[in-house]
Fold each of these.
Amino acid sequence: MGMMEEVMSKANVLIEALPYIQKFNDKIVIVKYGGSAMLDERLQQDVIKDVALLKLVGMQPIIVHGGGKEISKWVGLLGKEPKFVQGLRVTDAETMEVAEMVLSKVNKRLVQMLEQLGVKAAGICGKDGGTLRCEKKYANGEDIGFVGNITEVDTNLINTLLANDYIPVIAPIGMDDAFQSYNINADDAACAIATAMKAEKLAFLTDIEGVYRDFEDKSSLISVLTLEEADKLLGSGVIGGGMLPKLQNCIDAVKEGVSRVHILDGRIDHSLLLEFFTNKGIGTAIIGSENTLYDNER
């Protein structure tokens, strides 16, 4: 490609992004950050740059992060075997302590990276300002320790940070009515926060390309799913294990008023920008109804 074509293609990219930048100006967008994109240093930089860019073009991003693989590593270093029931970490008092320490470390690392890029960020967990109130969560009636089910989201502190130009970076630790600490599944936390904040978008960075009609057939990736179609798909039994609770979470968030939920492959460089700013987009978007389709999706 010659010099001129290269410059022109950059201009076209910016022009293509313009309607999206206008559409989401000042809108709240939640990024659920987890999976491989957290472990790979280069991908980590990509995600943080993307979030900084969303902020700088006028959106109000909020990061909700997990730290599962890192927690498992430290639990292992203590000589314990990480245990899961239905995708939820069995969390005894010692594991709870490790989870809180590890999530704090991850939280401040993300803040550090954002600040390095010249945007203001503040890391909190659900304990701060009573942001995430929860109760004990059971896995099919089984007691799995200090795992929390969110009962209430107090948005005051998040709104205070946004109003003062900070990107909130939120770790999924909450307290119950007796002020006991609980580890909360980060997907659950992202959905609850997106719902309470009436977010315009909730984007999940995952280790899959999106939702497939048939997981074995990579050409069956679904770009846009309406609520009705998503419900049907859930009932059809074709959705695999780890995807089930995620999809259910997404459906609930859209039902509760989040305009659209995206399931994205965090292993792709700049997947957030590709989904937010290009006509084609990547991954799967779950929307309320046909009425919320973008012009390019009709």
Amino acid sequence: MLQNNIEMDLKMRLIESGLTQTEVAEKVGVSLAYVNRITKGREQIVNKTFVKMMDELGYDVELTYKKKVAE
């Protein structure tokens, strides 16, 4: 099972960064519509088959996020 709420995590990181979905889409090189689908949970960004395999092997999947340190 995937432990994260990726959509909520992304929304919170957007708020923390002060960036809009449009700005992030432009920086990443994807459409605003794609970013919007991710934040609304309509687009799967974690492979379901991978999560099912790990579940079958007795593992939960949990993503961690670590803020980059400026060099």
Amino acid sequence: MYDIIIIGGGVSGTAAARELSRYKASICLVEKEEDVCSGTSKANSAIIHAGYDAEPGTLKAKLNVRGNEMMGKLAKDLDFPFRRNGSLVICRNEEDMPALQKLLQRGIENNVKGLRILKKEEVTAMEPNITDNVYAALYAPTGGIVCPFGLNIALAENAYRNGVEFRFYTEVQDIKKIQDGFALYTNQGMLEAKYVVNAAGVYADKIHNMVSGKKLHIVPRAGEYCLMDKGTGSHVSRTIFTLPGKYGKGILVTPTIHGNLLIGPTAVDMEDKEGTNTTREGLRQVMEKAADSVKNLPISQIITSFAGLRAHETQGDFIIGEAQDAEGFIDCAGIESPGLTSCPAIGEMVAELIRDKMGLEEKADFITTRKGILNPKELGREERSALIKENPAYGNIICRCEMISEGEIIDAVTRPLGAKSIDGIKRRTRAGMGRCQSGFCLPGTMEILSRESGMDMSDIGKSGKGSQILAGKNRDLL
């Protein structure tokens, strides 16, 4: 019997775990995949939104602004990449100015700092590659970009260090109310908890509907993206949005925290909760609409495309709180954009709610900080030379595109909640994220993972069970 079980290892679940680990309680996080950051949190725009878009008075509005405010200190404490690069929402003609003014007013009501509308001359001076058809733009200096993998993994590692237990490959199949809480029936056996936090992403409706008569319906909203090679991120300095529409903020153009250029997403509602395939039509739409906002896009330098799913709940707002007819069951559902931005505030809200209901006592020894994987590229020449002399693995470059060393990959595998797959290493180190997309470094990465984890080479997968890389004659040769 745990005090609290959290379902879901994305940014909402791990943020709640980290905040709850401030208190004296037995806490377990269960995740159906092999790692944290395996769902919506791994495939998104990586944007820290300023907070002008959400309807005033909604949870989205409140938690967006609070999460944005928290992000700087959190990035420093937990050592993940984050930068306030600012954002622009452009309009192309005078007829659209009322919509831009409405966004400004909405942002002011949401207490977003520094918002102002720029004339065409100011916009083009700020972003020389903006479309020639720009008429004006809403400038939000508090907007930012982040590494979503780094954020998610940092939250999880810090929660783990503060005593949260993590169970992977653990899928919740049913939940029953019992006298002292809930019984969770999983593919790994039964678990019990006094309180349950439902942070299951696109599956949060399924989990909620196991215990509540007031049903939720989450529609997976697919978004496709194109990512361009490192160095293209200087094409624009800020995140460029168009005026929002029915399905969200439209196709954006943004630098990434690592120097790439990202364009997307589309917005297509579907019922397939695993529908992360890209389409010819979707990618064509991304490239065409991005070109309407930013000229001279280096489309020839696209190195990969991907799709992610947003958990759109039909009520249109975040659903955070105790289910009306299931005392002790805390929903954290419908967490779509701006969920990544809001996650620190979501975790804070969930933790405070449970703290007050359970009367939890704060720990005196809560560990507030976490150190990420050492990046030799950030060291000075002398420091790097000394590091390689002390540990030659940091001088053995495995991924040439991203210049990732054997030492970094070893750290990714052996640290708490370490990587167990090629994608797990990729999200922790960027090995395989460059131009060749693992074409060169895959064998070396697999060898290190096998050696450091004890996994057989034939069992190593791209991402979890059923994704083994070696098959047929390749496996027979081992």
